[in-house]
Specification:
Structural class: alpha+beta
Largest sheet: 3 strands, mixed
Distance between the termini: 57 Å
Shape: flat
Number of strands: 3
Strand order of the largest sheet: 1-2-3
C-alpha cells in the first residue's frame, strides 16, 4: 500500500497546495460564468471552498456548498454528473498536463466554525477564560 503524506503527520506539499488552489479558482470561474450550459447548475449558486489534491495529483476532492446551504445532495449529484466535462475544462483552462479526477463533497467548514463559536460563547468556557492562571498569581 502506498504511503499517504498525511499519515506521517506532515501536511500537503507546496505542489499539492498550488494545484489545489489553481483548480479551485478555475472551477469557481467556470461555475460563475455558466460554462457548463446546464440550467440546473446555472440556477444553483455554489461556493467552492477548498480543493484537496492527493500526493500524486491524480484525485482532487472539491468541497462545495450551495448558497443558503439547501439542495446540497442535488448540487453534488449535478456536479458528479458533469465531472468529465469539468475535468476537461479545468485541464484546458489551468493548462495542466494531466487533469485530476474530480470528487465532490459538501463543505462543512462553516458548520464547524459555528460550532466552535457556540462552544466559545458558552458560560462555562467564558468563566474558565476569565479565571487567572495559578502560575500567574504566584509570580512576584
Amino acid at each position: 500500500m502506498a504511503k499517504n503524506s498525511f499519515s506521517e503527520g506532515r501536511g500537503p506539499s507546496q505542489r499539492q497546495l498550488r494545484v489545489g488552489e489553481l483548480i479551485r479558482r478555475t472551477l469557481s470561474e467556470v461555475l460563475l460564468r455558466d460554462e457548463l450550459h446546464d440550467p440546473d447548475i446555472t440556477r444553483l449558486s455554489l461556493t467552492v471552498g477548498e480543493v484537496r489534491v492527493t500526493p500524486d495529483l491524480s484525485i482532487a476532492t472539491v468541497f462545495v456548498l450551495p448558497l443558503g446551504g439547501d439542495k446540497q445532495e442535488e448540487a453534488i449529484a449535478l456536479l458528479a454528473r458533469h465531472k468529465g466535462e469539468l475535468r476537461r475544462i479545468i485541464g484546458r483552462k489551468a493548462k495542466l498536463k494531466h487533469a485530476p479526477d474530480l470528487r465532490f463533497r459538501i463543505d462543512t467548514t462553516f458548520d464547524q466554525m459555528d460550532a466552535t463559536r457556540r462552544m466559545l460563547s458558552d458560560e462555562r468556557v467564558q468563566a474558565d477564560v476569565a479565571k487567572p492562571d495559578a502560575e500567574d498569581s504566584d509570580a512576584p
